[in-house]
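Hi W., the pyridoxal-5'-phosphate complex you wanted:
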Amino acid sequence: MFNVEHIRQDFPILHRQVNGKPLVYLDNAATSQTPQAVIDAIVDYYSNYNANIHRGVHSLSQEATDAYEEARIKIQHHFNAKFSHEIIFTSGTTHGINLVANGFSSLLKKGDEIIVSALEHHSNIVPWQMLCERSGATLKVIPMNLEGELIMSEYDKLLSAHTKLVFVNHISNALGTINPIKYIIDEAHKVGAAVLIDGAQSCPHIKPDVQALDVDFYVTSAHKMCGPTGEGMLYGKEDWLNKLPPYQGGGEMIDQVTFEKTTYAGLPHKFEAGTPNICGGIAFGAAIDYMNGIGFDAIADYEHELLEYATAKLSEIEGLKIYGTSKQKTSVVSFNLEGIHPYDVGTILDKLGIAVRTGHHCAQPIMDFYKIPGTVRASFAFYNTKEEVDTLVTGVKKAKMMLS
Ligand SMILES: *Cc1c(COP(=O)(O)O)cnc(C)c1O
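Structure:
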């Protein structure tokens, strides 16, 4: 049984005040809050078995190694990867994307094409531009429509024998649109292109099955799904990970080192140079356990209710325009008040204890498309309530009154 009041008890931060008002945290698409179970995992690690992994013969090191590798297996099962060595621990989505983009430098040549989408986060645009500069490949962009959806007929036209890679986010962070990634993956495979999906916004809401999707690479960050910052994962099909060269050199990632020649370790260690965020990996596993304990079906149903409620209530405000109106959407409402800068609205909401994001949300091309400087973005998690939506609506009305 999904009981939001019980769930809120798991999150200490939700009980604090901001500017003398109870915190209403609606910036979940930027980072999620951390349940006690994950905080406990972090405290337990540093209190009881902090040690470097894969190196020591001593017991502490063994315990830390076991916990870290257990977390990898949890992540493998969560995403239904075939092998645990297909899960590479990273510092987050950005790291995972750069790892793959760097690896492809040596696999691409002039005349090759990379397709990205108009709905991308900057972290999914810049590394590909850099890759194009290095390799001579060309970047193509799947355009979007006014509802904030990718236009699939245009995608079909961009695909050709020149296409080597396609990079799309599963869900847009700025608008909440859920992209038709199964179609995107299948069509890319027909021309022999590999696909990387940015799952930073999907993993807090749904449980992706990488084998059913047949995706080549899938990346995400722990901190958007109740885990710690500076931690994430890259899933890659074994064949692809074997084909890519290592990203960073250092300890952990080698087999044998001499000054003449170094041979690299096998997967996953080849991509995990240096001491990793050991505690972060373990806490990521705890976050996945926590979310599965609540259940992704229950989370999706409840968040959908919040989305519909917030959309209806905000739409009643005269002069308020919502950006991103796809039917396939997660619990994000991006909006503006006519003639008022989003930053000013955000500042007033903060005074009322309401945390929203304002600005371009690291997705300037989307803002350019709508010819706006940015939006106010309220993004809901499963621990938000309808009462909090009401507080937001009252706050927005107040901001409108004060600013117009
Ligand atoms: C947050 C986000 C990223 C970047 O994640 P980091 O944790 O900052 O590396 C990339 N893509 C999308 C869609 C995001 O929402």
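Residues 115 and 311 are 32 Å apart (CA to CA).

W.
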